[in-house]
Predict the structure.
Amino acid sequence: AQSVTQLDSQVPVFEEAPVELRCNYSSSVSVYLFWYVQYPNQGLQLLLKYLSGSTLVKGINGFEAEFNKSQTSFHLRKPSVHISDTAEYFCAVSGGFGNEKLTFGTGTRLTIIP
Amino acid sequence: GAVVSQHPSRVICKSGTSVKIECRSLDFQATTMFWYRQFPKQSLMLMATSNEGSKATYEQGVEKDKFLINHASLTLSTLTVTSAHPEDSSFYICSAASGTYGYTFGSGTRLTVV
């Protein structure tokens, strides 16, 4: 069984400040890790994913994440946030790429303060 | 590539009627379709997984007779909410999956039962 923990339900950050959204996972098999962003009343958009290889993954909109196997973490970071980054962010894990279900964390609401 | 179209985006129906939601992968073939339900300010809850030409696999606690899923082709899956009641009001999101593109989400359907 797999699970994802996003400890921070809400993260307020000043505009142009850096941000880190935390994600920890547990899995008994190989993992594929994802970060998604959801704007109000919309579906999910993929920010980035880790499948294998380099542990530092770069995604869209200036986001990056680092896979840390020893700490079972996949934290999302951005060096300088913008108002447009205000949204809900979900971390997810799967045992396969496209052939197994995604297990989502509870989400982190990122609010950018002007 | 990897675009998923979900319709309708919003629907209001009377209690006791049925509503059909369509999910189409426009430019790829989806080996698997996933249907999620999302309550306000909460994460996505997987309802069922469907593969083309076979019966859907429902998650524990999801009524298969109320939420009918049909996956007639590699590009189309439908979710029918039968005899809808106000407690079925929610945001429903589909995800089309393939080994090439991973998981691509529809834009969601806001169902309101009055």
User: Anything to note?
Assistant: Chain A has no helices and twelve strands.
